[in-house]
From TrEMBL:
The lineage of its organism: Bacteria, Pseudomonadati, Pseudomonadota, Betaproteobacteria, Burkholderiales. It comes from Pararobbsia alpina. Substrate binds at K84, K108, S363. This is Glutamate dehydrogenase. CDD domains: NAD_bind_1_Glu_DH. SUPFAM superfamilies: Aminoacid dehydrogenase-like, N-terminal domain, NAD(P)-binding Rossmann-fold domains. One of its GO terms (molecular function) is nucleotide binding.
Amino acid sequence: MSIEQQHALPSYLRPDHLGPWGIYLQQVDRVAPYLAPRLQRWIETLKRPKRALIVDVPIHLDNGTVKHFEGYRVQHNTSRGPGKGGLRFHQDVTLSEVMALAAWMSIKNAAVNVPYGGAKGGVRVDPRQLSLSELERMTRRYTSEINVIIGPNSDIPAPDVNTNEQVMAWMMDTYSMNLGHSSTGVVTGKPVSLGGSLGRREATGRGVYVIACEAARQINVEVEGARIAVQGFGNVGSTAARLFVEGGAKLVTVQDHTGTVMNLGGLDVTALSKHVLDTGGVSGFAGGEKIPDADFWSIETEFLIPAALEGQLTELNAPKIRTQIVVEGANGPTTPEADDILRENGILVIPDVVANAGGVTVSYFEWVQDFSSFFWSEDEINLRLDRVMREAFAGVWQVSQEKRVSVRTAAFIVACTRILTARDMRGLYP
Ligand SMILES: NC(=O)c1ccc[n+]([C@@H]2O[C@H](COP(=O)([O-])OP(=O)(O)OC[C@H]3O[C@@H](n4cnc5c(N)ncnc54)[C@H](O)[C@@H]3O)[C@@H](O)[C@H]2O)c1
């Protein structure tokens, strides 16, 4: 049966082009049979976002003309707490994508047991085409437009693809100006000088590394001496790569939007990071050879870390992948078809909703610190982060072993049970 026949799809998505939301729905279908009968009646809750706001974002360009951008903020589920999730600036952002990313945030926050629901935002823009002042005006106008649904107790944005500490500072300032006083807790991933948390910038990549080590231990793969492939060398990919190399692994190939570089002897992470900072991408890096993008997937490694965009591991490239563990730094990088192929080929996939939850975990610490205006040391943050990640992984791994399901389905079982138990206990209003 096709996905359109199985689900009551919203009229605002095209059934013949469901995009990432279609992938998310298939993941929910896989978990449904494992949920307690008492929770089955609430499953439809997971298949529709609670609230989706579409906004027009007009700005003055530096040349005096006015340009309009399309923006979204979606709150998927808030049964367990306020909405929480990043903000993405990308020319290909769609409502379907933001809906799926918001839903994955609901699952992730429940999987690692932080007291949040799931939300996500996006603006259809290539930020590289804007000047810094245009970017600031766009961020501020977008924040004003979604002002009605965000807030420290209702929905808390954070950085995602192409957004960073500076964007969060502008958002915090805009929200605070409308409010009449500073409200640091409205966003996380802020600069440390503005109520941000130590360790937040590196938290997602650090979490990826911690989880990768835990997974490796379960199937007797050594991190020391292991070969690593990383797709996406931004915040998540570059931090994870650096920690792997510090742990004794060898970074053999990196791909980003500018191309793919390889060095079987090991790429120098520090030099590559500097090259990316200077030039905007990995292409042209002198410490490795340029290879065709398609070849990236078939390079033999022990760990493959997708840390760019969703839908990267598909039925087309999955059969070529020669690795032992895929650790999803990106959100939604693996399609359900690729998931099945990797499983058949004995490749362990550690899903995004656990592997990249380090960012939201430290965002949670930041939010707690902002509320209490009492800030913790970086050691304390990293210690707590490592503990949350290890405990979450252990719980999910146990379910995957007991029920003989993939780690992704196990994570969905743990998370959906938490979300729907909250729904069940709260009951329906009115
Ligand atoms: N930043 C966080 O805290 C965080 C938390 C959880 C999950 N994530 C997820 O991690 C992923 C990366 O986020 P980030 O914050 O590192 O973003 P970023 O903007 O810092 O980096 C994105 C990277 O992806 C690369 N990329 C873009 N398009 C590509 C393509 N077509 N092929 C190959 N590479 C491409 C870019 O070149 C860049 O290196 C996203 O899926 C995001 O949702 C981020």
